[in-house]
Amino acid sequence: TATSSGATPQESKTADRPDMHAILKTMRAAHKASPAPTYEERIASLDKLEAALLAHKEDIVRAISTDFGNRSRHESLVSEVFVVVGAIKHARDHLRDWMEPEGREVAWAFLPASAEVQMQPLGVVGIISPWNYPIQLGISPLVGALAAGNRVMIKPSELTPNSSEVLDQIVREVFKPDQVAVITGGPEVGEEFSKLPFDHLVFTGSTRVGKIVMRNASEHLTPVTLELGGKSPTIIGDDFAIEEAALRIIAGKAFNAGQTCIAPDYVFVPAKKVEAFIAGCKKAVAKLYPDIRRNEDYTTIVNERHFDRLRGYLDDAREKGARIIELADAESDRATRKMGPILVVQPGEDTVVMQEEIFGPILPILAYEDLDETIEYVNEHPRPLALYYFGYDQSQIDRVLERTTSGGVSINETMLHVAQDDLPFGGVGPSGMGHYHAHEGFVSFSKKKPVFYQSRLNARSLLLPPYGKAANMFFR
Ligand code: NAD
């Protein structure tokens, strides 16, 4: 994907990269001149964004596939276009309600005054996004920020330069430069970007970089939403059909070849059902991906560094005595970076695969006897971004929900909570802070402004000296 000058798109962009400080300054001035876009203006922005995404959907599919080696067309359409268009539709349907000031109660002593909460645009919002869903994770926070009436600067990942080009093209087609802009570049650009005095900064990426970003943002007390990663546990209850659980878990794990922040990271299986679960996983892979190497439905690992990292996890687990089961024959195809789903049975706590977020198609299996063991394990580890439980016994479901804390949960499924337009999304502790998607996104990108209106009638009499015995009246 070299340009005519021989430079990669990333390099050629770097040379004429716009000055991010100047862009922010322009956006600030524009915000000052027009601080509250109307409902109609926001709807028009969302409409144009939706139309551009749909018009460019094949460009999106092509660009991401070029960046990855192969990215399933279906996965790109669903996770980068359909999901974002759903978020736009949802915002459009609810925007009038969301923008409406919310009347609040006034205590009797202040009547007949009134009070309300207004939702005010913050100003300029920064977005830093990762490579694994390069369009969705840039545009989805943009939708909430635009609905809330803000201007936005997006810094996408340097690992997916073709996707960044399409993102930039869409943004330029739809928005004026003082409304939305894309700034490309690697970690150094990210550093500089996260030090800008934004009114809010959304970072999606690793926990390690999240800490740097939060530290940088603290210089200006810029509030942050951190969408981070971690190891999302999956627990199969004793009462759930094991073969069906295997199918749903493999489907979640294999989507984007496991390169998903909320992918089921490892799975707890009732001890007596471990072999049946392994058999179920084999059957699921045979059914979903009869072939891996030439299968366009199966996404590649994004680059050699990540491919080697995953291979390293397997070597480490093998050396430490875990059983490795390849469910397809593509484990070692480094040239194409296709890695089929692989099970690691009973890896020890000392294995890298049980310490690091996997972010690839490797699924560790841990046998358990008693549900409380699994709850204890989860609670002894950093709070995860997602948790999955399979079972129909409501008391067991409630036990897991009450006793564990995670960013989100799907019951009897993996990952689908993120696709619900009306649910907020966000981590907890090391998996992140703050929420976006749905109404929560609108709220995160707004200043909730409490406003008190004194009545023409009330002369504040009870609050003015000389107080006399007035204070006692408050406690009657
Ligand atoms: P990453 O943290 O390496 O990079 C993310 C972004 O930060 C990129 O744009 C990168 O250029 C930028 N960056 C890198 N160093 C920086 C620095 N020092 N200062 C400022 N910005 C910097 O993450 P990644 O490898 O692109 O993505 C994978 C991670 O993202 C995984 O941990 C995954 O779980 C997480 N993730 C989370 C979500 C979520 O919604 N919670 C979604 C997708 C991915």
Automatic annotation (TrEMBL):
Pfam families: Aldedh. It comes from the Bacteria. Keywords: NAD, Oxidoreductase. Residues 9-449 form the Aldehyde dehydrogenase domain. Gene3D superfamilies: Aldehyde Dehydrogenase, Chain A, domain 1, Aldehyde Dehydrogenase, Chain A, domain 2. SUPFAM superfamilies: ALDH-like. InterPro entries: Ald_DH/histidinol_DH, Ald_DH_C, Ald_DH_CS_CYS, Ald_DH_CS_GLU, Ald_DH_N, Aldehyde_DH_dom, Aldehyde_DH_NAD(P). The active site is at residue 227. Belongs to the aldehyde dehydrogenase family. This is Aldehyde dehydrogenase.
